[in-house]
Structure formats: structure tokens, C-alpha cells
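Researcher: Go.
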Amino acid sequence: MSDLPTYVLERDFDASREALWRAWTDPQLLARWYGPGAETVVHGLDLKPGGLWRLEMRWGETSHRQRIEYVEVSAPARLVWLHANADADWNIIPSPMMADWPRVLLTTVTFEAAGDRTRLRLTWVPHEATDAEVAAFASALEGVGRGWEAGMDLLAQILAQARTPA
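Model: Structure:
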């Protein structure tokens, strides 16, 4: 697995580990930051191993569905899931936006407390992928980072608003 291309995001947040965990596991908070530039609709979130997080991102008349199956849920330290594109019935499908994109990505998110701050580390790696899928993922790593970074910027704003008294 070490020879597979891996996207790695590390970011420190001015928030407790519990607050950051909540932002990744509360459907209402997820909808506010996940999928920047889109309306994100959480159709279900069953936070347990084998449970599904079903979401849809909408841009006007266009929509894109994702099916996330949790592999590990260790509150408030670690989330591991299988991330895939989905059809309207939540079946895994090839990417409608990029030929040869991996059908499934293994995602690991860790939350490490550091005083009153939290370090988040996210990794994304092709899961049971073909050579063509691995190559497509490797060639798209820079673009993947832009999307995740934009989401993390929104998340940081939400966490800052939660700390500020009204």
C-alpha cells in the first residue's frame, strides 16, 4: 500500500478535538462546510462501522452523490471510511466527472489534541484500484488538495464563529 499515491492534508484548528470531531460527524455542521461552492445535502449519516454517510452536492440543476461507508469510528480520535461516487440508489458508480477516477478511496481522518488546538490529518488513497485508477488519482492530486483546502477554510470559519459569543 505504501507504493500507492496518497493525498495528505494536515491542518491545525483553533478548536478542541471534540468540537472538530462534532464538525465531522454532525450532519447539520457537515452540510455547512463539506463541498464548498455547492449546496450539500446529507441524506443520512449512520456513524458506526458499516454505517453509511449519504450526501449530495448540488450546483443548480446538477447534482453529484457520494456514498461513504464507515470502517472505523473511534470518537474523538479517528474516522476511517470508504469513499465512492453513487447513483440515486446509493450504489457505487464510476466517477461521472473524471475517467478512470478510483471507484473507492480509503479515507482516514485523525484528530490530535494539542492544548486548546487540534491537528487534523486526512489521507486519501485508492482502494482496490486498477492501474488506470491509480494513475488518474496520481495525476489529480494537486486539484484534490484545492477542494479539501477550501472545505477546511470554511470549517475553520465555522469553528471560529462557534467560539465567538453572540
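Model: The CA atoms of residues 19 and 159 lie 8 Å apart.
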